[in-house]
Design goal:
The protein is α+β, with helices and mostly antiparallel strands and 359 residues long. The longest helix has 18 residues, at 298-315. Strand 9 (194-196) and strand 10 (199-201) form a beta hairpin. The strands form two sheets. It has a 16-stranded mixed beta sheet that branches. The chain has a two-stranded antiparallel sheet with strand order 9-10. The chain folds into two domains: 10-110, Aminopeptidase; 133-224 and 267-358, Aminopeptidase (3-Layer(aba) Sandwich), CATH 3.40.630. It is 24% helix and 30% strand. Residues 9-184 form the N-acetyltransferase domain. GO terms for molecular function: acyltransferase activity, transferring groups other than amino-acyl groups. InterPro entries: Acyl_CoA_acyltransferase, GNAT_dom, Hisat_C. This is N-acetyltransferase domain-containing protein.
């Protein structure tokens, strides 16, 4: 427990028994696609995560957590929220100060904290700097229109020129992709950040293993010129996902990594991550699905989106509607917005911002 400049607010470590009360102050957050209701108990069980509640007059009025990443040298803040009736009273600042104090006292190895915001939610942590930003596009896809919308996207890709083959990466291949410490990643990962959903990570092995445990789907494309120095050699042959054959062929064959050519840097190509769909409070049977794109080639971006949607459809519970969030470099926004014409837009957040500050 800790006290802050506001003397009637106290901060406690979150517990399983706090779930219902915390959810009562979270209604409507992120337009009903808040991940916390689904992830709360999973987060509690994670030894690398700390979760804190702010209480006023014995009522929960705020929440914040941080996750230790980069082998413990960085914390990522997540889930900040304040009860609607007490916003503007310093609760968020108290939680942020408490988390920073906790890091300094109990995690001296941690030297910086990262967090994300949007064009709607400017940062509230002081002395931070923006290190990257991406465009956000979100659409709704009803279950009974899923096949129709995927076929629409397939047809749009039929008219484009040569496309890079797409490969689904297994765990060993993911680790191999970022194996060399000196590997130049700027072409794919500006500032070296692998942003999965709203979580900014480095390519440290511990972070890759974290994403693998979460069941993230990894797709990669080599450069069109397989002899280019931008291609990657894969030395393993395991594949994370076994794809069922669709009723019609994929617009681009989904290859196994063993069929790819073999030079060795990561300054080109295209990478995408698909977060397993999860239920959200928006309504019964509604799931959220996030696609993170890394690279700047518009044709590859559209191809990866299509493959990620096909993979998502394969694992989606029967009858589930989907809200899909797409995160991409800003240069891709016009082409991807046009690619999604005919799908219903969901949410007006258009920019993902990543911030960082020293602890």
């Amino acid at each position: 427990m800790s006290r802050h400049p506001r003397p009637d607010v106290e901060i406690f470590q979150a517990a399983s028994s706090d779930y219902t009360e915390l959810m009562s102050i979270s209604e409507g957050i992120y337009r009903g696609v808040d991940p916390l209701p689904f992830k709360y108990h999973e987060w509690l069980a994670d030894p690398q995560r700390k979760m804190f509640l702010a209480k006023f007059e014995e009522q929960v009025v705020g929440f914040m957590s941080f996750l230790l990443v980069d082998n413990g040298t960085t914390a990522v803040a997540e889930g900040l929220r304040v009860a609607p009736w007490i916003r503007g009273c310093g609760i968020a600042k108290a939680l942020q100060k408490f988390c920073l104090d906790n890091l300094r006292s109990y995690h001296p190895k941690t030297t910086r904290i990262r967090f994300t915001g949007s064009n709607e939610t400017p940062p509230t942590i002081r002395r931070c700097q923006q290190v990257h930003s991406k465009s956000v596009i979100s659409v709704q896809i009803p279950y009974d229109q899923m096949e129709e919308k995927i076929k629409l996207l397939e047809q749009r890709l039929e008219s484009v020129g040569e496309r890079r083959p797409v490969v689904a990466l297994g765990p060993s291949e993911v680790l191999h992709l970022f194996k060399e410490p000196s590997l130049p990643t700027e072409g794919l990962l500006p500032n070296g950040l692998l942003i999965q959903s709203w979580v900014p990570l480095s390519t440290h092995r511990s972070n890759l293993e974290l994403l693998l445990r979460r069941g993230v789907a990894w797709f990669y494309s080599q450069p069109l010129d397989s002899r280019s120095e931008c291609a990657i050699q894969f030395s393993t042959s395991d594949s994370l996902y076994t794809h069922q054959e669709p009723s019609e062929p994929y617009p681009v064959p989904l290859l196994h990594s063993s069929s790819l050519p073999s030079p060795s840097t990561l300054s080109c190509g295209f990478l995408s991550l698909g977060t397993p769909p999860f239920p959200v409070p928006l309504g019964d049977g509604i799931h959220r699905f996030d696609i993170d794109l890394f690279g700047t080639d518009p044709i590859s971006a559209q191809t990866h989106v299509l493959h990620q949607l096909i993979e998502m459809q394969r694992v989606l519970p029967s009858g589930a509607n989907v809200v899909c969030y797409l995160f991409a470099e800003k240069i891709l926004s016009p082409e991807l917005t046009q690619f999604f014409q005919g799908l219903e837009p969901f949410y007006e957040v258009t920019e993902q911002q990543v911030f960082e500050r020293e602890v």
